[in-house]
Each structure stands twice: as C-alpha cells, then as structure tokens.
C-alpha cells in the first residue's frame, strides 16, 4: 500500500472510531433521558426513628361490628395510599388477594398495582366502602381492578372467586390468601362451636379451597403467599382458635411449597405481629388490650399495613426466585419466626 493510501485509510479508521465513541456517549444519555421521563419516579423517604414514625399507644377505645372498616378507625391505618412508590417489579402480573379491602391485603393490593400488576380483591359485602376505595387506588395506578365480594366460608364461592379473577384478569400468577377471622375469648369454655367453625372455615378451609382452585391456572414462575401470624409461635391467651389456624397456615405453606415447586410455583407465608387493622377493633381484641395494642413489642407500637407490603412484593417478584417454603416475620422486634 502506498503511503498516501495508508494515511487515508488511517484517517477513515480514526474518524469511524470517533463517531462510534460519540454515539456511545450520546445513546446512553438519550436512554437515560427517556427513562427519566417514562419510568416511575422514586424519592427516598427521609430517615426516621422506627419507634416514632407512626402512632403509638395508648389508643382510644373503639369498637365496630364485624368485619369492621378501616375508614372508621382512629387513627386510620396507613396502607401506603400516599407513600408507596413502585418501580415495575411486578409489571404485567395478575394477582388475586383475599381480604384486599383493608389491612394487610389492602396494602398489598396498592403496592402490587403500583409495581405494575393488575389486581382482583376478594372481600365481604359489608366491606364495600373500603373495597371501592382500593379499586379507585388500583385504577389510579393505571392498572385493572376487579372487585369480587362474597363469603369465602362457602366452597362454591371460593371456586367462583378464582374463576372470575382468572377470566377478568386474563390469567393468574400471584395468589395472596390473606382474609382472616379473629375473635377474642379468654377461655376455651367461651368459644362456641359456631365461632370455632367460623374461624376455621375462614382461615383454613377457604385457604385450601381457593388454592386448590387457583393452582391449575398458575404458570411456572407464579407465587402463592399466605398470611400466617406471630401467634403461630407465641399464642396469646385470648386467641386460641385463631392461633391454631395461623400455625396451620405456616405448616400448609411449607408442605405445599414442596408439592408445587415441580410446577415452578413458589409458596411462602408472612407472619405479622401486631398490625393496626379492622381485625383488632371488630372483636379481635378486648377494649383494654386495644388501648395498649403493640406496646409489648420492642418497637412499642403496632405495625402499619404499609410497613409490611414490601414483603409481599418481594415474595411475589422474580427477585425471590430461590425463596420457597419460608415464613417471613414482621413482628416489631419480638423475634418470631
């Protein structure tokens, strides 16, 4: 090659490399600009002492007829309505949450929607005001909301619940069995057969019926999350039948996880400690216990539903792909599970 041809080829090579380098610098900047415009914006919460960021006891005595409404509690629970910010961790997913009108189920529904999931919620007809508030929040997040009122003590309704969720969501890949019945009685002698049956049908039978109906619809990569309780490990004197069912839920979750992992479905449980939900004001606690609710934890207060929602998001997401058969606690420092 002649000298002038060599110089010309060398100049073209350098010019090409410079153009490539420039494009490499411009494209990431353009992509970053697009992300900043289209991606969910996230502003970190300021650091605060966990003991004092939410209301602490003593609380005012208050009572509601079963099943209770979050809107009528004082103080009102925080479900993440104004605080939870998503980042597309559940984009395109389809979730069914029982007890999704209030409490922990409501917090999970809000979080799932803001993480990109379409959400169906099951609830009792008496809880319609709370349920409609959740439906509105899901839709404001840009996701599909499906409201499914009914009594899960009825096996036929449990099958209908799953069927309608699958039809209206276009599938199902997250199931959260969260609805629960809790009634305070100081002695086994005070628990009637009707009360016992009510608790077991709501907390255990429905869990079995709904899960059995849902599994055939759930593809590999799906997640089932059951709500157990710290009472599984440390049952209080006034929640004998409730604690028994919550221990059963933890055991059921561990056993089912072994069955379903071959299908690619993960099963886990969350065991909350004292959380400020309608369960507590509609017969779940005595008025005296309600006044000091959560004070026996190291944090000195009850948890707010917004504080536990991230656990449900984690267990539903593919980030937890190696997590199955586990029970996650959030008990304010009491150490169980």
TrEMBL record:
<protein>
    <recommendedName>
        <fullName>Uncharacterized oxidoreductase YghA</fullName>
    </recommendedName>
</protein>
<dbReference type="InterPro" id="IPR036291">
    <property type="entry name" value="NAD(P)-bd_dom_sf"/>
</dbReference>
<feature type="signal peptide">
    <location>
        <begin position="1"/>
        <end position="31"/>
    </location>
</feature>
<dbReference type="GO" id="GO:0016614">
    <property type="term" value="F:oxidoreductase activity, acting on CH-OH group of donors"/>
</dbReference>
<dbReference type="Pfam" id="PF13561">
    <property type="entry name" value="adh_short_C2"/>
</dbReference>
<feature type="compositionally biased region" description="Polar residues">
    <location>
        <begin position="31"/>
        <end position="44"/>
    </location>
</feature>
<keyword id="KW-0560">Oxidoreductase</keyword>
<feature type="region of interest" description="Disordered">
    <location>
        <begin position="31"/>
        <end position="88"/>
    </location>
</feature>
<dbReference type="InterPro" id="IPR002347">
    <property type="entry name" value="SDR_fam"/>
</dbReference>
<keyword id="KW-0732">Signal</keyword>
<feature type="compositionally biased region" description="Basic and acidic residues">
    <location>
        <begin position="71"/>
        <end position="81"/>
    </location>
</feature>
<comment type="similarity">
    <text>Belongs to the short-chain dehydrogenases/reductases (SDR) family.</text>
</comment>
<dbReference type="InterPro" id="IPR006311">
    <property type="entry name" value="TAT_signal"/>
</dbReference>
<dbReference type="InterPro" id="IPR020904">
    <property type="entry name" value="Sc_DH/Rdtase_CS"/>
</dbReference>
